Task: structure prediction
Amino acid sequence: MRVGVVTIFPDFVKVIKDYGVIAQAVENGLIDIEIFNLRDFTTDKHKVVDDYPYGGGPGMVMKPEPFFRFFEFYSQKYGKPYVLLTSPQGRRLTNNFAQELASKEHILIICGRYEGIDERVSHFVDEEVSIGDYVLTGGELPAMVVIDAVSRFVPGVVEEESVKNDSFYNDLLDHPHYTRPREIEGLKVPEVLVSGNHEEVELWRRKESLKKTMLKRPDLFIKHTFDELDKKALISLFRELMSNAQ
Ligand code: 4FV
Result:
């Protein structure tokens, strides 16, 4: 997968290539992440990328010309990417949206700063993406969040199984995880997890996911499509509740 990012703070973004699963994916050639400095597409001595807003008001707006020059250069060199602009007005990033973006094979993320970007740049934008209803000082962190979430859906980057067990993968929150030691400060690992009975482990994990989702994200629970294991888990949960109630 090819990922391009254009920003006035390339050093801030490029660290995403140096750590963890994504560094591994870049190393293995599964993802190619290229960061571009917007200032390299200015023509004046001071490499100016912002200007006062027409109509007045606070703050500055990013100029269109550097972006127009950048797109000219980028499309000639790499062809047509799926262009994303990170902004609070965008479509909310979800696991499903990230999976959708991973199937694009080539995305380019524009990072805004200041009050925003001249609206005429949206001529190049295929979709705006938001990571949440709050205002950040720049689009770089959202771009890195998008790259991280999308990378997990690029085949070979993380174990398929791990993605399948993700929270939100099937609209359920993830089950609890345990590792050694068996006991710490009197807190024990649930017996079923050391029973070696894989069926019982799978049922226990699904019960925990359903319980947590019902309590914390009933909106997701309502969206969830129930399979046979879900039904078995809910019956077992209900029986436990009924027996505790007696
Ligand atoms: C944002 C968000 C975000 C708005 C103006 C950058 C800032 C500044 N992007 N999800 N929330 N962007 O707050 O994606 O230019």
